[in-house]
Amino acid sequence: MTTGAFLLEPSLAERPWGGTRLGDGIGEAWDLSIHPNGPARIRSGTHAGRELAAVVDERPADFGGPIDLLAKRLDCARNLSVQVHPREGDPKTEAWVVLDAEPGAGVYLGFREPVDADEVARRSLDGSVADVLEFVELAVGDAVLVPAGTVHAIGGGLVLFELQQSSDTTYRLFDWGREGRELHLDAGLACADLGPPPARPVAATLDDGATRLVDCPHFWVDRIGRDLTGPEALLDPRSRWVAVHGVAGQATLDGLVLGPGDTAVVPASAGSTALLAGDGFVGLRYGPGVGDEPHRR
């Protein structure tokens, strides 16, 4: 029996900067994850109750191979550490889509001007590194691409959807005075880009009316919704898989009900699946970068 579309149950994690949207003190919900540090479970269909990783390992052909991405939500009541992710070994390029934002909230992304490693190390230790970082104010719906090696920090007052390579390697450079968490200056500075921030993604309208928010070699993210794609949107896994995260309203696909905060996966074995959007539905459709652009205008 091939694997059909299914819903996922996230793995929740407390964080020192976590708020209350995902649960008291919960900072992250790993909605689609095969990573051992936070594996998601399948909550519908034939494989209900099993970890997604186990099903992918058992039936890789259904997904066109391994799943090498991780999707999560972050509830950032306070600033996250100033950090960087490696480019090699356990690389992590990530992208954010803003789900909610307090006035003036934003992210630190890259440096205002080129700096050297000695200055970043000194400022990380004396608490002034944020003074040389570029601050980008964000609003609901904004998207940001963070290539591996980019020094960054998510500011407090944001709720984000994040799609990333499946990695949990983070090198902290500065933690806003919080105690008990190790810094990784040598490893972080060895892989850090010490220049200006990367260019922001430019949204594009696709043939089906969706908005392509992020597009990189590792993954892509589209905004879909009744006001964009009409009452029916196509979830086409092609040779791999495609997922959709519910942001607002409700939709149905293959007999499943998708509400706010829910994640549904359509593996290659299920084939193209229609998502029927109810009034007010908004979702994020995403998948692995497979080198083709079937919907772009």
UniProtKB/TrEMBL annotation:
State the name under which the record lists this protein.
Answer: Mannose-6-phosphate isomerase
The source's domain of life comes to Bacteria
- Single GO molecular-function term? metal ion binding
Question: Which keywords annotate this record?
Answer: Isomerase, Metal-binding, Zinc
> Which SUPFAM superfamilies does this entry report, sorted A to Z?
RmlC-like cupins (SSF51182)
Database matches in CDD domains: cupin_PMI_type_I_N_bac
Query: What cofactor requirement does the entry state?
Result: Zn(2+)
Q: Which residues bind Zn(2+)?
A: 85, 94, 152
GO biological process: any one?
carbohydrate metabolic process
- Matches recorded under InterPro entries: Carb_Metab_Reg_Kinase/Isom, Man6P_isomerase_Firm_short, RmlC-like_jellyroll, RmlC_Cupin_sf
Name the catalytic site residues: 172
